[in-house]
Fold each of these.
Amino acid sequence: MAQDVEVAAEPREEQATGAVRLDAVRQVYAGRGRRRGRDAEVVALDGVSLTVAPGEVVAVVGPSGSGKTTLLELVCGLQRPVAGTVEADPAVLMPQRDLLLPWLSAIDNAALALRVARVDRDEARRRARPLFDRFGLHGFERARPHELSGGMRQRVAFLRTLLAGKPVLCLDEPFGALDALTRREMQDWLQDALAQERRTVLLVTHDVEEAALLADRVVVLSARPGRVVAVLPQPGARPRASTDPAVVALGARALDALRR
Amino acid sequence: MSARVAHRLGPLAVVLVLLGAWELYARSGRVDPFVLPAPSAVASALWHDRGLLASNLAVTAEEVGLGILVALAAGFGLAVALHFSSLLRRGVYPLLVASQAVPIVIVAPLLVVWFGFGMLPKLAIIALVCFFPIVVTTLDALRAVDPDQRKLLATLDARRWQTFRWAEAPAALPAALSGAKIAVAVAVIGAVFAEYAGSSEGLGHLMLQSIPQLETARSYAAVVVLAVFAVLLFALLALAERALVPWVADRTQGARRP
């Protein structure tokens, strides 16, 4: 599956370009009880510094409420930090839920970014089709989202993210809603897909094993307010298997850092 | 099998029982036939006055059809405008709600003064009566679009109107059609009001005329024709719904199958 050499022929992805730099970022939300005054505000991130090199895959793990999603939205420019700086090349978000549009076929969903960029429908489909063949969706181009399995929907959502043509991908718990078996399958699939389409990736997950398997570096955030408590490099080379000793060891270290 | 037959015949049986009870009551002599005609009398009026009913239906149908088109255009237009502008939403929405509290009886004469006795005041009244459910259902559905969906489109570099075109408008379409279905049902009543206010033809006019002529059965026959017409319009919209928003029907059928 991983030995699909044809793909390297696409020249534009030879050199990944996207870089991300966060410096002492702090993000605060107004709390729900506005009448109670300023005490109600919630600090989502506090003093978070983080860099992602071009082509690097960085996983961010942390407990619920540690500001992981906030981090991605800052990188994607959907939010501005109250303090600190965010410098990022154009980034596209793949949200937790696939958010496929039920009135569009799978291929039109995948090509949504192209349509938004005013590419006409036939041309958009023509560009999306090879990805369907390559990424295990051959024959499902015309299926409606409700006809697809959970794993397939995530694949289409990932293709939609790829076809946005941005150097940085922000994946927000892409497999969180899948069953354990499908999730495994999708992790291997994503590893393979990223080997073919080299991009800078910021992957948010609460699954340390997933982080250890897919990432070159694992960043561990603390519970609210989110602070970086550990940055763990992945020594193992690609492609990795979830049973590789390096992967297992990194997962254990990440879990350890989370518990502290 | 027998359950399916019962499923089909059940509603018919209910109608037959109700008609039978009505017939018995009307013939019992406890109520004047000028006040409540028997179903058999209504049926015979339907037959005898079929020419009269048909020509008046043609008038009312035209009013209702055009009136609904006006209401749809106004309703969708207003919903989109209110959706895009919070200023309008705050300023105009309460007025729209208040407008629904104004009895048509009050404004109808004014409309007649302004627009005369022709088609225009009727269209205005029908549109006034039925644009409101269209605005409310459409606007609510436009605003109910998942905020994450908007974020997603924003990271795909969609502009405001593109988010509307790709996500909000299609998402709101089923609700807009529901609003239109409610509107169809009340549009018919709107037409009767409009004809009461001043007209020389149409089913509402026929009803109004038949009562002082002691032709109560004829006015009931006009009501039956009007009701059947409303049901047909409703069914037409349901068909349009299947064609316009196939993903809704697909999903519910898919859910039922397993």
Amino acid sequence: MIRAEGLVKTFGDFTAVDGIDVEVRPGEAFGFLGPNGAGKSSTMRMIGCVSPPSAGTLEILGMDARTQGAQIRARLGVVPQKDTLDEELTVEENIWVYGRYFGLSRRLVRERAEELLDFAQLTGRAKSVVEPLSGGMKRRLTIARALVNSPSVLLLDEPTTGLDPQARHVLWDRLFRLKREGVTLVLTTHYMDEAEQLCDRLVVMDQGRVVAEGSPRSLIEQHSTREVLELRFDVADHQPVAEKVHGVAERVEVLPDRLLLYTADGESAQAEVTRRGLDPLSALVRRSTLEDVFLHLTGRTLVD
Amino acid sequence: MAAQVTAPVGARDGRTAKVPVLGPWSSVTGHWLVKYRRMWAGTAVSSFLAPLMYLAGMGLGLGALLDQGVGGVPYVTFIAPGLLAATALQTGAGETTFSVMGSIKWNPIYQGMLATPLGPRDVVTGHLVFVAIRVLVVSVVFFAVAAALGAVPSWWGVLAVPVAALGGVAFAACCYAYSATLSSDKGLVLVMRFVVMPMMLFSGTFFPVEQLPGYLQPVAWATPLWHAVEASRALTLGVATTPVVAGHVAYLLLWLVVGWWLSGRVLRRRMVV
Amino acid sequence: MTDGRVGAGRAGMLVERNYRSSRRTWPVIVSGFFEPVFFLFAMGVGIGTLVGDVELADGTAVPYVVFVAPALLAASAMNGAVFDSTINVFFKLKYARLYDSVLATPLGPRDVAVAEIGWALLRGVVYSTAFLLVAALAGAVTSPWALLAVPAATLIGWAFASLGMAATTYMRTWADFDYVNLAILPMFLFSATFFPLQTYPPALQGVVQATPLYHGVAMVRELMLGRVGPGLLVHVAVLAALGVLGTWWTARRIEGLLLR
């Protein structure tokens, strides 16, 4: 569906995307995971054919992104990071007008709008103007709008950033449905739980490069331990404490407010910490996540 | 520590807050002045060059077609006080339309102000004092240019500056009350086109209101601009009498007080709920 | 086959969008018609009475309102076009981010430029037709050639809308619009709009004739007074050249701004 080789995007002296190779297969949900500024959005804009690649090749649906932008865009659905809904129009008009940009007939656009509003659970708000809608509703409308041309690929840039937990789950549910219907999803996120929930495969990006690639499960297996012990102490600096737990776990990461101990068995690590006479304010054993993978690969956290 | 108990603000670090000498509203005026400092260059165009061009274009250019002037006065001398008052009014309206609605809706500045010890009255007063300063500066500059062009025959004309500025603030106060009720900029465009613009054209600025059809003359008399123009013109031409000027000024003060009172009320209803 | 990166030839769809959204702001749109009418009234009853007749270049005298009505039509075509293509477009570009979503579809930057300029012109046609009717009722229309004043005003609108939109792509804040006024106002006052060219000192007459609005005013005035000659073609050529330049420039700028 999408094939990038040595893809580069520069803005003047600044290199946003630094030679990435990516392949997205039909029907899968593919994710770009990384912190803000990793180059995810620039990559998405190139795939959306609104930003010409600076170097490398980018092929989408068998067409060249550089020269066949309009034909490619005709078969894409785009959900940008910030909603770009038309606040001067009503909910249903947003879908009608957007569909017309794709050259769909008025009749077809109206039929599609009815289905899509149902899909987005917005039928009751069809005649309402956009402005008073909640963040979750606006997001669902943006997705519904992006589907008006029955796209083969749906691009979602940070689909749930800024939404409350309940709205996120509603949105994820809608995206699962699309996936079951065979729509290829390409999304960026800096939430590891979102990546784990939605993505079949993902690449981890950092500073414009791909640092790892695989399924969420395989990435965790490859780059982290089974469990993590999180310790919080009543100290301003956790670095000195880290030395005292040396050897308790395979690997120790020091964060400003806590220590992360990577180990296959969190319970026994915690017992060892107590045996050494340390008294943390809190201790928590949990499973490894993509956050830990990222921390291991880059030495930095995803959400700052 | 007893000192901290009486300190209303900044109590955590032991520093006490000073209430501004003039009253809490003066910090609001300060806010608008700081903002204005960053954009004065652009407004210099609309509030100084624009009236100057009108004075040159209408007064001198169109005046060339009017051999006898108006009522024995050269046309440029006739419209100079009219443009002075009209500029003050337009500046006042400009500062109390988009910025008031915007401060409520687009960039919720008022919400921030009202989260402090400031009340709606302080917000209104502070804003209007800023408008008064703006309008006064514009009037002084315009007057200086008009005088340099020889369009001010009498020394009494200096008094036209505060009169014109008063007209500007008086209208601004009412404009404020109106803008604070709006929830979209549609209403602002309409007030500009149906109130401000016709007022500029038909309140004796460019020609005596006696030339209007009889039924429209009372409408012109009711506008604040007509009073500001009449008083300013009487002063610059040196034909003013105290009771006449006092009458016009009193009418403008009435607009100012009513507008100020209404604005505070509207803002309280809108923001403090 | 057109270049897919620039436009899909579907500008009409964006015009349709503007029409839809305008249905909710119709009072504002209707109000745009009144501004030139207020001016015409002020000139007719107010200044016209003071001025009396105006002598034209060929020595004939016409009432002031007959002299000034064509200029008001031309000037309001300019003002309307500039308003639509600067403030409205700036809002859509920077705040509503309308074009970001438009460019995610097959539409390209040229479609955006053509649509927005075209929309400004559509409104202009309605305004100038309405104004012409009012001017006729006020006795300011003296020749059947005046009917051509509507397309002429549309041409003026095209020149100014396209230049205005190109300028808008350079704007950073609302305060920058004061500079638009700085360009528009002197033209409004000094393009032989309110008093004839002969009134200016000879040295300034050349400057006046160099402004785009002068050509607009002269063109509409020649038509409405029925004094049609080959000189008309010069005015048409100047304004059309500006329109082409502005449209091309706008499309290029939109591409540079949004497709980087």
